[in-house]
TrEMBL record:
Residues 2-56 form the HTH lacI-type domain. Residues 3-50 form the HTH cro/C1-type domain. It comes from Paenibacillus vini. This is LacI family transcriptional regulator. Pfam families: LacI (PF00356), Peripla_BP_3 (PF13377).
Length: 324
């Protein structure tokens, strides 16, 4: 069985350098880091994780609680989180809450008892006090909770971009389909920006909210069908997520409604599928990898005992494709 000394000799570095790579301590060039990892793979070297955890009083495991891994947005976010956490030597323990308060609480208890070094929270069903009681470092997505640092995109600006484009395209009977506006989420600022921008131009939008489970595709189709039947003269729709917008395309196709001929459509997120559907989806792009990278850097900083920035809001961009 290969030892740390064997790895150091084959990689042409010192044992201290290999140790620093394993423990992510001190400055190590990317070239040296990659070389050490390559040699470890070639020699099938397995560090003693229990001993390492005891020596540095860290597990190098991060918990991540998301609403549903089945949703492409959270699948992509998790992929990027794992990618950038792995570069710093962390492993990810993924928890799928399905927006269930009981499950979210159970997962938080599980992560705490397993002594994860920190948590990413992207499922927000619990009350603020539940998060404030936690001792582990936490980073949240799209929710501002007390003094917990968060990462978000310019949600309100995204709503403004969507409103301006639909108006530019000549739309005047405009609808917005969004999640539960009763939840205290920064993503609901998309609605604020969209509605405020339209009203400033003398256009009153039609706002339709989804039910309690905002990730239920069957619920999407029901709400979209209801919207189109109640307001058959709609000529523009802004959906608060790309998957929701893709369901608009599906329902409209089933009803013979042409997009973008009769209805212009805009989504939000710019997940990979947005450019693959037909017609390709116009959307507001969140810089998803940059959001994930920033979140990992922030959590790593908290774990190290550093002061980190509380508000982390990244810019969005309009990506125009065939639905407008």
């Amino acid at each position: 069985m290969a030892t740390i000394k064997d790895v150091a000799e084959k990689a042409g570095v010192t044992v201290t350098t290999v140790s620093r790579v394993l423990n992510n301590r001190g400055y190590i060039s990317e070239e040296t880091r990659e070389k050490v990892y390559r040699v470890m793979r070639e020699m099938q070297y397995q560090p003693n994780e229990i001993a390492r955890s005891l020596s540095r009083k860290k597990t190098m495991i991060l918990g991540m609680i998301i609403p549903t891994i089945a949703h492409p947005f959270f699948a992509e976010l998790t992929n990027y989180i794992e990618k950038h956490a792995s570069k710093l030597g962390y492993k990810i323990l993924l928890c799928n809450s399905r927006m269930d308060q009981g499950k979210e609480k159970e997962y938080i208890d599980m992560l705490t008892s397993n002594r994860v070094d920190g948590m990413f929270m992207s499922s927000h069903t619990l009350e603020v006090d539940e998060y404030k009681k936690l001792k582990q470092p936490i980073i949240t997505f799209d929710r501002r909770i007390a003094d917990i640092p968060y990462v978000s995109s310019e949600n309100e600006q995204g709503g403004i971009y969507a409103a301006e484009l639909l108006l530019k395209k000549g739309c005047r009977r405009i609808a917005h389909i969004t999640g539960n506006l009763g939840l205290d989420l920064l993503s609901n600022q998309r609605t604020n920006g969209f509605v405020k921008s339209l009203r400033g131009r003398g256009v009153e939008p039609i706002v339709f909210e989804l039910g309690p489970d905002v990730f239920d595709s069957e619920g999407y189709e029901r709400v979209i069908t209801e919207l189109l039947e109640q307001y058959p003269d709609i000529d523009g729709i802004f959906a608060s997520g790309d998957i929701l917008a893709m369901n608009v395309i599906k329902v409209c196709m089933s009803k013979g409604i042409d997009i973008p001929g009769r209805i212009k459509l805009i989504g939000y997120d710019d997940i990979e599928m947005a450019s693959l559907v037909s017609p390709a989806l116009t959307t507001i792009r969140q810089p998803l990898e940059e959001i994930a990278k920033r979140a990992v850097q922030l959590l790593d900083g908290l774990i190290r005992g550093e002061e980190v920035q509380h508000d982390n809001v990244l810019p969005v961009t309009l990506v125009e494709r065939s639905t407008t």
